[in-house]
Amino acid sequence: MRWYQISADETAKQTNSDPHKGLSTKEVEQRLKRDGRNEWKEEKGVSQLALFFGQFKDFMVLVLLVATVISGLLGEYIDSIAILLIVVLNALIGFFQERNAEKSLSKLKELNAPMARVLRDGQWAKISSAELVVGDVVSLSAGDRVPADLRLVSVTSLETEESALTGESLPVAKVTEKLESDQLGPQDQLNIAFMSSLVTRGSGTGIVIGTGSNTAVGQIAELLVDTKRKETPLERRLEKLGKILIVIALLLTALTVLAGVYRGNPVYEMLIAGVSLAVAVIPEGLPAIVTVALSLGVQRMIKQKAIVRRLSAVETLGSATVICSDKTGTLTENQMTVKEIYLDGKTYTVTGDGYDPSGGFYRDDKESKEEALQQFLRYGVLSSHAKVFRKKKRWMIDGDPTEGALVVAAKKAGIDEGKLSEYDILHEIPFDSKRKRMTVLVRTPDGKQIAITKGAPDVLIEKAAYLGADKKLLADKDKRKLYEAVDQMAAKALRTIAVCIRQFPAGYEPKEEELEKEMSFIGLNGLIDPPRKEARDAIIDCRKAGIKTIMITGDHVKTATAIANMLHILPPAGKVVEGKDLDHMSDEELQADVDNMYVFARVTPEHKLRIVQALQKVGHIVAMTGDGVNDAPAIKASDIGISMGVTGTDVAKEASALVLMDDNFATIKAAIKEGRTIYSNIRKFVRYLLASNVGEILVMLFAMILALPMPLVPIQILWVNLVTDGLPAIALGMDKAEDEVMKQKPRHPNEGIFARGLGTKIVTRGILIGSVTIIAFMLMYQGDPERLVYAQTTAFTTLVMAQLIHVFDCRSEKSVFARNPLGNVWLIGAVLSSIVLLLAVIYVDPLQPIFHTTDLVMRDWTLILALSAVPTVLFGFMKK
Q1: Do 233 and 315 touch, CB atoms closer than 8 A?
Q2: What are the TM regions of this chain, as residue ranges (predicted)?
Q3: 674: closest CA among 147, 206, 315, 358?
Q4: Rounded to whole angstroms, how far apart are CA atoms 420 and 380?
Q5: What does the DSSP 8-state code read for residue 22?
Q6: Whether residues 157 and 205 fall in one domain
Q7: Are both 485 and 557 inside the same structural domain?
Q8: In a domain, 465, yes or no
């Protein structure tokens, strides 16, 4: 028997599951051990050994190894062994950099895992879908990705889109009844919800019957696994830069070798020197360091509650000029509370805040417990899916915040959702953002049927035919009063939810299209979701950073305006635009005025997409937030799609580049700040590496031009590359944000890595580093061959110290004096480590013949430090 051929009850028996309580934690642990996690096998990653040997695939490293072998054959054993050891050490550094980058990216992948709402030990909870096991009871709602193969046990207008499996893009209506046929394909198994399919409408629950590779899509996915990570635009630009540098380095190296041979130096000595110089000049570690910097920055974002799904988003964040934000939950607390009720021409004040069900109902300062009010509150509970519970002394809701507020309001009147079990939900028309309403058909204990509709007041006032439960005809003057009540609530920043009903006689089975006709308008709920204090501060900070905040909401225009003023979004001349106004605007008209618009109210998902596209047309880099299925097009079309981690659907998350784990606007600001910092740090170590490399190659060229002996021997060149390019460069990638990072205008997305004077800084510092090194060599050499080793040691030390001092200059775009030199403890540690290694090769006797060094005295160090500081101090005062 196949799963679709047996009943839901039989499925529960065969999986040893309880549809009402789910599995126990102990049972889940046993099944996880037996069946494994709910994920299919992936392509094996590169082994640690292969990763290490991959460090030797670089062409220049291979040439150096060949030259080293030749040197050994010619009897230069010490040099050959020393160079070989340095090459291995360099490979180890590259290996650890790449391994750490892979680990970071792997952690990010785990964090990106979709979530599932599952029943465990009688309690609903959200868990990673990878933790699902056969027998788990899973809840589905519109916008979810089905997390495993499920045998459905209950459905309410449930439809799924199964193109990932069947290729058919049209949604499939789901059922719970068993199917008799023996040869049904996936597209005809209507009582099965398949893993990775999308819930497009309705809701339902199902029992897990297959996980991981044992799902229908899992068996296909194993054949199509592709775990390759895409490079970011910045990484591609740097890779292109690396290739250009290789060509330049090869030409300069060839020039150096030919010049040295022409002057009579041994060919093999010049060959090794040339290759060593090329290895030192080419920043082969740059891609790995970029990846490390990106992944470290992304890890910092995670600590600030932002998960980056695509590394390219990190670069784009620094360019954002506009943030289009939802109001509810992002700019506000997302703890909706009913504060007023309008019923039969009377206004009731509701006390209490948040989800705490303590409070009461008052009219004219007197507590009210009228039956009409009680019945109105029941309608709110019956048309809501939210549950209210207490956890760790804190009241919380499971479900939609607006529906949660209605349930909490009913609890304040002593109406518990559990006490309404005698009411049966017969049918539901789910909420739709276009229709702006939802409806449930309920059978009451006396057998009557009531259709309860809740939604936007402007929609329901126009659709209603009657007023009140006694079905008085709804006249124009009644509509005006209702609109006045809506306006009064909206002016207080209250969001309004209207409730209508239609009654049907016992035994009558109404059709779906009848449920929302000839309705009676019952009353209004006025709810408030208070603005987040941290969101207001973040909006002000974003404005200082040249980033405009736009609020987009489905709320009433007066509610939206009131909240926008509280949050300091709306400037005096800023415009508030309603969705109906957008409908009458052409794209050209919208683009012409969009820079003056700050609040969009009563909008649909289609409006959101138009707003994003209009902003992009006039040159903005747009970050767009959203949480629903219908938000996905706007999220995907934006430059930085941002989804909500708490309330967001899986579809919204998949369309996004950034997921907010706390649904908080302040987290967007923090992510933008981190994105700017990451890009700034990448510029820092590009500047440091290239300026140092320019200095190294110029030292050799200056020597050739001035007909001097080689100021650096090959082993010294490689040692400089080892001790200065590795740890200090990585430490720069961990630098904290500069104070001015959120006071600068957004970076243009097409800005080159050398923009804003970085190329000039690299060349000028490189020239000075090379110059002071050759000056140190000439002062100590004085044309005496007996002093050559002494002069080479001085030049070697000057070059290293100049680079290590220069690294502090790279911490700021302004000047070395603009930041506290002790502000980056990682950099201090890296520089001290490099100095210790430098001192070792100068003063440890066994290392001196290997590295061609000799002891230096205090007088030498005075000269070295004075010359080494010149490039950094000179430009520090010039501030260029």
Answers
A1: yes
A2: 49-71, 77-96, 244-264, 270-296, 685-707, 713-734, 762-783, 789-810, 822-844, 856-877
A3: 315
A4: 12
A5: -
A6: yes
A7: no
A8: yes
222 is written with which tokens?
């194993």
Q: In 3-state terms, what secondary structure has residue 486?
A: helix
Domain hosting 205: range is: 3-36+116-213
Q: Residue type for 172, please?
A: V
Number of domains in the chain: 4
What CATH number does the domain containing 172 carry? 2.70.150.10
254 and 199, same structural domain?
no
> What is the structure's pLDDT at 44?
54
For residue 100, what pLDDT band results from cuts at 50, 70 and 90?
low
Instruction: Classify residue 531 by its DSSP letter.
Output: B
Of residues 326, 555, 650, 725, which has the active-site annotation? 326
Q: For residue 525, what are the β-bridge partners?
A: 341, 497
DSSP letters spanning 39-53: ----PPPPPHHHHHH
Residue 876 pLDDT > 90: no
With beta carbons less than 8 A apart as the criterion, state whether 132 and 138 touch: yes
Q: How many whole angstroms separate alpha carbon 783 and alpha carbon 412?
A: 96
Which residue, 482, 512, 528, sits at the end of a domain? 528
Question: Is residue 509's pLDDT more than 90?
Answer: no
For residue 573, CA distances in Å to 238, 324, 558, 597, 708 come to 44, 19, 16, 9, 71
Residue 577 CA to residue 615 CA, distance in Å, equals: 15
- The kind and range of the H/E element at 472 are strand 472-473
- Output the CA torsion sign for 563, 564, 567, 571: negative
Would you say 564 and 587 are in contact if contact means Cβ atoms under 8 Å apart? no
Q: Give the predicted TM-score (pTM) of the model.
A: 0.69
Per-residue pLDDT tens digits for 795-837 = 999 999 999 999 999 998 887 788 888 889 999 999 999 999 9
What would the mean pLDDT of 285-289 be, rounded to a whole number?
63
pLDDT band at 469 (very low <50, low <70, confident <90, very high): confident
Same structural domain for residues 292 and 366? Answer: no
Model confidence pLDDT, tens digit, residues 129-172: 889 999 999 999 888 889 999 999 999 888 888 866 765 656 88
Nearest to 435 by CA among 460, 414, 416: 460
Residue 224's pLDDT band, with cuts at 50, 70 and 90, is very low
Cβ count near 716 (within 10 Å): 25
- Mean pLDDT in residue range 561-581: 93
β partners of residue 183: none
**Does 105 map to a domain?**
no
pLDDT score of 225 more than 50: no
Q: What is the pLDDT of residue 389?
A: 86
Across residues 358-382, what is the average pLDDT?
92
In this prediction, what percent of the chain has a pLDDT beyond 70?
Answer: 85
CA proximity to 423, closest of 402, 404, 440: 440
CA dist 336 and 332 (Å) reads 9
Whether the predicted pLDDT of 76 surpasses 70: no
Last residue of a domain, one of 612, 647, 663: 663
> Which two three-digit tokens encode residue 539?
């909006």
- Domain co-membership, 588 together with 692: no
Determine whether 144 is an active site residue: no
Amino acid identity of residue 272, one-letter, is I
Q: Name which of 113, 110, 104, 546 is nearest 311 in CA terms.
A: 104
Pairing of strands 520-528, 548-552: unpaired
Please work out, in degrees rounded to the nearest 5, the angle formed at the alpha carbon of residue 701 by the alpha carbons of 66 and 67.
Answer: 5
Is the pLDDT confidence value at 199 over 90? no
User: Domain holding 369: CATH number?
Assistant: 3.40.1110.10
Residue 83 in any domain: the answer is no
Q: Which CATH number belongs to the domain containing residue 636 in this structure? A: 3.40.50.1000
Q: Do 615 and 742 belong to one domain?
A: no
Instruction: For residues 582 and 711, state if they share a domain.
Output: no
Beta-bridged to residue 137, according to DSSP, are 119, 207
pLDDT band at 15 (very low <50, low <70, confident <90, very high): very high
| CB-CB contact of 621 with 746 (8 Å) | yes
Residue 659, domain member (yes or no): yes
* 393 plus 426 within the same structural domain: yes
pLDDT of residue 227: 38
